[in-house]
Amino acid sequence: MHQHQRQRPHGRPHLRLALATATAAALTGGLLTSVAGPAAAADSTRVAQADFNGDGRGDVAFSAQGAHVGGRAEAGQVVVLYGTATGVSSAKRHVISQNTTGSPGTAETGDLFGFDTAYADFNADGYDDLAVSAPQEDVGSDRDGGGVAVLWGSSSGITGKGVTVADPAPSSHDQWGRHLAAGDFDGDGRADLAVSNSSATVHVFKGGFTSAGTPGGRYTVKPPVMGTDAGGPRNLTAGDVNGDGRTDLVVDGFETETGHGWNRNYFVPGTTSGLSTGGLQELKPGVITAIGDIDRDGYGDIVTGVHWNAVEDGQTMPDAAKGGKVWITYGSPGGPGAVTGITQDTGNVPGASETNDYFGYELDLGDIDGDGYLDLAVGVAGENIGSAADTGAVTILYGTANGLDTSSGAQSFAQSTAGVPGDDETDDMLGMDVKLDDVTGDGRADLVAGSAENAGNGAVLYLPSNGTRITTTGSRTVSPSTSGVSTSGTPFFGANFAD
Questions:
Q1: Which candidate, 210, 212, 215, 211, places its Cα nearest to that of 192?
Q2: Cα–Cα distance list, 385 to 96, 350, 433 (Å)
């Protein structure tokens, strides 16, 4: 079985469960496309952002799933930075673990609480809530059975108060909550939650969650991806691709059809009855996916990052390119439509395609300049700058009526860029996660980027929009040490944003 590329040392899209047993872990997580404040129904045209405290500004939630809690290694934490008129910082935050008052469970060694997160207003009280997984949680005698909790939003934000979303089939799989995604899959106006595990089966909890965590119903879908040995789906991404007002789901995993086990994405459409594999379509590969309307035609476009090389260990990899490639599959009334690819050798995209650049390591969509066309942030986490290896960078491509503009206007940011805090250092991997959300409330998306700064401690870089472009004016770095997160071990602070 060809599992498409060498495993990356850190980051979101890979097997983050290795974090519990290896210092150079490959990290993985799901992307959520949801509606701005509060997140609920599908909408392909609006920027996805959470508003946990209902103040109208976007908030940023992310994992520190390798953090030590009460001396327990890799118990894990979730960090929420609240939007303000001057952006996000450690000054206005919550840090939640399983030891936080009201939070389900207890912080234990290796739980990896915060491994994946997804937000929506699950109980319809006007505040976005945060679903959080701990896929290596031991449940009784069930080792690595996994756990999922929903932490309720409020006027004070995410304080830790929440409920457990119980595994309905614990004997059928492990790693409950390996990936999460939220959306309105049946179009009834209530937010649903999709939960994956080590098998190929995805469980969907229907909206209308009660304060006790009881959903409005439950069903399952099973796309053609490998389970068990391959760990089940490797990512879940929600968004409305066909413009019918129901959220669709893109499931990434190793396909079962060819015997090669190539990485594949599958489009699973939302219907009046919820997600249905009856309309399943195969897409271009790429572990990380973002969905949003780039060209403003009313249909969500699917962007996937094939960050690995065209040749890995002597094996030619389908649909890949040297240094990485980003595929855009444009939405249409019938679902996925026309496809185009972008590399660092395309047009005037910053940089050049070099082996192991990891172009497409992470992706997110947002409207930076307020023109109604979604722009794309691309993590280039393996970029080498000067003599330092894997320092990383972030590329910004702007949306137009014709799609992403690769001929002019693109931006690139590294820690050596004038005005960006920090320095280019080996293994910083800036761009190991990226997020474009309006955290100032001015109607323009700002850039937040994660890195593996300081040997896996991690850091979050904030670069605001000036109304037309991303700028370094007002930039800052948020670190674990200023946010109440222990730097014992490798917390990977900011390695996985809830989107």
A1: 215
A2: 35, 13, 18
Which whole number is the average pLDDT over 86-96? Answer: 98
Please calculate the CA angle 202-120-126 and round it to the nearest 5 degrees.
150
Closest by CA position to 332, among listed 362, 293, 286, 366: 293
Partners of residue 291 on adjacent β-strands: 302
pLDDT at 46: 54
Question: What are the start-end ranges of the H helices in 163-263?
Answer: none
DSSP state of 205: E
Q: What is the pLDDT of residue 22?
A: 27
pTM over 0.85: yes
The answer to whether the beta carbons of residues 173 and 227 sit under 8 Å apart is yes
For residues 415 and 418, give the distance between their C-alpha atoms in angstroms, rounded to a whole number: 8
Q: Please compute, for residue 428, the number of CA atoms within 13 A of its CA located in the half-sphere on the CB side.
A: 26
For residues 81 and 88, the answer to whether their CB atoms sit within 8 Å is yes
Please give the structure tokens belonging to residue 145.
């059975």
Q: Return the pLDDT at 265.
A: 97
Segments in 37-86 forming alpha helices (H):
none
65 contacts 76 by C-beta, under 8 angstroms: yes
Which element (helix H / strand E) includes 453?
Answer: helix 453-456
| CA–CA separation, 79 and 9 (whole Å) | 22
CA distance 389 to 274: 45
Contact 52, 158 (CB under 8 A): yes
Assess whether pLDDT exceeds 70 at residue 229: no
Q: Do 183 and 157 touch, CB atoms closer than 8 A? A: no
Question: What mean pLDDT is predicted for residues 236-245?
Answer: 96
Q: Which amino acid is at 342?
A: I
Q: Which amino acid is at 301?
A: D
Please, what sign has the CA dihedral across residues 403, 252, 30, 426?
A: negative
| Residue keyed to tokens 């991690």 | 458
Contact 417, 472 (CB under 8 A): yes
Hey, which residues does 335 pair with through a beta bridge? 332
Token digits of residue 32: 């959520």
Cα 217 vs. chain centroid, distance in angstroms?
26
Q: How confident is the model over 417-432, as a mean pLDDT?
A: 97
DSSP tag of 394: E
